[in-house]
Amino acid sequence: MVRAEKQPLYERDPDAWQAYLAEGNATQPRKRVGADVLIRDDRGRLLLVDPQYKPDWDLPGGMSEANESPADTVKRELREELGLDIVPGRLLCVDWVAPHGPWDDSLMFLFDGGVLSGEQIARLSLHDDELSAFAFCNEAKAAERLRPYVWRRTAAGLEGLRSGRVGYLEDGWG
After folding, report:
1. In terms of pLDDT, which residue wins out, 6 or 18?
2. pLDDT tier at 29 (50, 70, 90 boundaries)?
3. Cβ distance 80 to 128 under 8 Å?
4. pLDDT digits (tens, 9 = 90+) for 48-84
5. Which of 54, 56, 108, 123 lies at 20 to 30 Å from 146 by C-alpha?
6. How far, in Å, CA of 39 to CA of 170, rounded?
7. pTM value?
8. Residue 25: what pLDDT?
9. Which residues, other chains included, contact 42 with Cβ-Cβ below 8 Å and sequence gap of 6+?
10. Number of other CB atoms surrounding residue 76 within 10 Å
11. What is the Cβ-side half-sphere exposure of residue 147, based on CA atoms within 13 angstroms?
12. Distance of CA 48 to CAs 65, 100, 146, 154, Å?
């Protein structure tokens, strides 16, 4: 028989153990998480969005809400911003983004959004004030419109589409 003082906390007082875990969770560092999606048309062009709150174009997606999975983030953001209801496909890459400006670091997930049909494209529309426009762009135009590290992430995602491998990046560098 195990003596009471030697028993682990999770055995002798499960409620105290849960409180201990909750305290540890409350003091752990938090990390911002976001998720974007590579969506193409039948010509292979990429869907980009133009957010009103920053100077550069971006991929569709956004920042995760508390306790929201990256895949659910993509679904919510596409529905809220473009009225598009799709289930993201496989993960293409994860990108750790270093602190910059007022922002802490973050983890960005990039999923395959597939190829939209002509009917789906015709139904796309701006659904909130966050975006001022959307456009399908070839890779050269996308590289021009996206911030350099977002383009590097996008290029890694395109490579992941071709190779079937998931990439890990830091500021878009693999």
Report:
1. 18
2. confident
3. yes
4. 999 999 999 999 999 999 999 999 999 999 999 999 9
5. 123
6. 22
7. 0.91
8. 87
9. 115, 117, 118
10. 16
11. 12
12. 22, 23, 9, 11
Distance between CA atoms of residues 163 and 158, nearest Å = 9
**95-126 exposure pattern, b = at least 16 Cβ within 10 A, e = fewer:** bebeeeeeeeebebbbbbbeebeeeebeebee
Q: What is the DSSP letter of 148?
A: H
Q: Residue 127 carries which side chain, given as an amino acid letter?
A: H
Buried b (16+ CB within 10 A) or exposed e, 77-87: bbeebbebebe
pLDDT 10s digits, 133-160: 999 999 999 999 999 999 999 999 999 9
Helix (H) or strand (E) holding 67: none
Q: Is the pLDDT of residue 126 over 60?
A: yes
Selection from 130, 151, 142 nearest residue 54 by Cα: 130
Rounded Cα distance, 114 and 47, in Å: 11
Looking at the DSSP bridge assignments, the partners of residue 58 are: 49
